[in-house]
Amino acid sequence: MKVGFIGLGNVGGKLAGSLLRNNFDLTVRDLDKNLTQSFRDLGAKVVNSAKELAEQVDLIITCLPSPKICAEVMEAEDGVISGLSENKIWLEMSTTDEAEIKRISKKIIAKKAIPLDGPVSGGCHRAATGNIAIFVGGERKAFDKILPALTVMGRKILHTGELGTATILKVITNYLASVHLVALGEAWTVAKKSNLDLTKAYKGIAVSSGNSFVHETESQVILNGSYNINFTMDLVLKDTGLFDDLAKKLGAPLEISPKVVDIFKDGQKKYGSRAWSSMIVKRMEDINNIDFRAKGFPEELTDNEPEEKGYEI
After folding, report:
1. Across 229-233, average pLDDT
2. Could you tell me the pTM of the whole model?
3. Which residues pair with 89 in a beta bridge?
């Protein structure tokens, strides 16, 4: 199977790297020529347009920052859709909007190609080692066909059902992660002002009913002071906005979600759209004139689990 990958950013570059590391025939496309050159040096092919990439491969993967950018890459005159033909598969691995996935997919199907949505979850450090989780929605037969590629990019692979279901599930999980992160800011505030040993507090939370994946990972770079989670404030706002908008479309009044959106808007205003998302806890540090520093925590997360072939759950 020939694979094409468009979008070599924080997550996409690591997913594409797993494909290349596992000897897939890989063609890449990104506006950043430094990124594409690094892949060329490792043996990947590089093309000059998304159309050219789609013409040359069996599976086209997009992993892009926003629904708007994805639409441009797909629908431009020299975009992916122009290069599609019968039985090619498009896998959208960005965190995006379910309605937008379905809108673009109608154009994919018109070309007799097959659309799938396949967002990932688990952090950039796990994307780097092929241990991230992947949700996939869409035709089961197409899912089975690309499963060999999925199982080198990710560890646990879930077929969520029809097209769009993976995107909805991903938006839900990102919302929960954002809530956990905001709550951690308040938890660390109380711990600090109570004069707790923050290293011991970290360990205590990790073995308690209050534990979460967000605590186990993001609390480490918060306590270090780097906040470097390889995910930025603007991306969290995109994701929390998608969740809040979906709830509104469903006619489901929510209480916490609108507040979380407002908190991240304030964080972006204070620290910038490209600030690390973990810096949202700095609002509490600044308000309370404290910091959450503790010794022995890493500046950046690394995945210490061995790389293993993924599997469907």
Report:
1. 93
2. 0.93
3. 59, 114
